[in-house]
User: Fold this.
Amino acid sequence: MTSKVIEVVGHLPTLLPDGPEESPFTEANWITLLAIMDTVIPSIARGKSTSSIELNQRTISEEEYQTTAAHLKETVVDPPNAKDLDEFLAERASDIPGFQQLLKRSLVFYAPQDARKGLGFILSALNTRIGSRILTGYTTPFHSQPILIREEILERWRLSYLAPLNVVYKQMTTIAKSLWLKTSPTFHKVSGYQPIPHHFKPKSSHKYNFLQFSPGEEPEVVETDVVIVGSGCGGAVCAKNLAEAGHRVLVADKAYHFPPSQLPMTEEAGGIHLYENGGAIQSDDGSIVIVAGSSWGGGGTVNWSASLQTQSFVRKEWAQDRGLTFFETAEFQNCLDRVCDRMGASTEHVRQNHGNRVLLEGSRKLGYHAKAVPQNTGGTEHYCGHCTMGCGSGQKQGPVVSWLPDAAKAGAEFMEGFTVDHVIFDELSGVKKAVGVKGKWVSRNASGGVEGPQSGRTVREVIIRAKKVIISCGSLWSPIVLLNSGLKNPHIGRNLYLHPVNTVNMVFKEDVRPWEGGILTSVCTTFENLDGLGHGAKLEATVMLPSMSLVLRNWTNGLQYKTTALKFRHTNGYISIVRDRDPGRVYKDAVSGHPRVQYTPSVFDRGNVLEGVIALVKIAYVEGAREIHLVNSGVAPFIRDSASEDHDSPNPGITDPAFAAWVKDLKRIGNKPPMAGYASAHQMGSNRMSVLPQDGVVDPEGRVWGTEGLYVADASVFPSASGVNPMITNMAICDFISRGVGKELSGEKES
Assistant:
């Protein structure tokens, strides 16, 4: 079969599906919620004095305004003029229509019911005199307080000895910051941020022909040799291998495909169209935010191109400690090399941007080991920081660009908009033999898009009958599919590893434009094996889009936060990312059926994260950062004294007494949540591979224990955390699994 190519001429906006019609709360509770949002992102105006009481506006004195303006002129390249600054400061969250719409969508569509009810209870209490007295110390309802008092209340919640109030503070400030950064009409104008790369050149791409079905009451039945549920890094490799081996392959995914002409998306649209749960999932205790791709091509559509192979200490653990000897064989290395070669993964064409140069040079000055990170960019330079919202250039050789088109050339078929409910088993022989999957398919609308209402789109129940079933839905959804299918293995969903991170932001004198250039093109590995067993921290640059970066900056008050946001173009972000020793679990929400996560970074893993954070702040100092900010509400930022930049005096480096005292304080305070914020972009291990059925979910060939014909091929089969960005390890394991499935199918045909 020939590969069809679609030509593109320019960037097209991506519209959103209709939001909810109903409100998540009563009118009174909604007013109180917006009052909280407007406290975090308030309207700020200058007045003759600060004594006037304003409920919905934060008034600052002319002196404070001029001090702020002067500070921005001193620290920001091309600071906003007075008119633009006034407009920016005057902007209030609730006055932005898109903000309210996105807030409502987030609460109705993406918040678990119990979390929404809990928030509703707090909002109701804040509307009463007794509840307000308990939660705020005042009898006046929250929404009737002036903003200065509301700011004081939020600060009390931050410092409270009651953990639930700490969590409410953290969640409310995070939601307000995130949604404002995604919808603000003034931020881009005054910050210099460009949502579309200035060098953007959309590239022609493969034209997918997706299966279509007409309306009907009875289930549509499709037959194939292999159905692969999921189009991400694992499923795509399986599709290529099995189709090229001559088998009929159907790849089905609940997501929809977006061509390069619609990429990269805006942060608002990308969160909804390209990510799970509108952009993020919170663990049950709120200690960690999980970001997971949910797009055609899975995480490979939105990842950062990093292509690191599995390290020796991880291979040794999996092979020797867990008995999975394959991981120390030459064949596993062949699998690793094969997937890297297909994507042209190398460091040869990497051009380091400012953020990654800081990591490399700062590591050198401190005697740390750092190196360039291979990129899966087909042997070409890929100087783009927006790929986490999809790659419009087509240079990133993820599933959509490489593996799935290869599969199409070999005859594979594709199905978008198909949510699998469960695996179908034939148990007549006394063995659970997988013979297909059943789920719901939703078409595109009449104009070929997925925006607007669902009415007018075809919804059809579909059964896919197959000789082999491969579940490649990722570490959050694959366990849910297995549980929905009636499997009782107690390991399903357990042993979830997340590579938790803490973030460090560094503000520099120069205009670094952090959204430009490759995202993760360098790594410091000095601290990756702190316990001698492969557990420790890597130091990496991180994505620098506003809603993924500035959302992590600590909030003290509205003026402080808006001033901080204007320094975005001078800021680089970094992560201390650990190979976690202690896992959590995924389970099914009883109401929505969606994945829920129980995970709290352990004391052991937090200690390793902190070691990496301390190394990062030292790198920041020796590289001349003016400000060092942690995602930790208990730690004030380090602000470099201008006197320390006196070039006539000996440079004390990290022995500078003021800096050393700050680091000592950081060590004392620590990074325990919810004070410290954790995030994860890697999910692994929730259907782990094992030698014995009592120790895991799949056998060494990826076959689900206790079944025939059912396989899992994604990062959920990792025996433990990979310690590196999981894409290459995932692809290599799935390369091995799918080749085994192909041989088994060929043997069945011959017999």
Summary: The longest helix spans residues 727-750. The radius of gyration is 26 Å. Residues 32 and 191 are 30 Å apart (CA to CA).
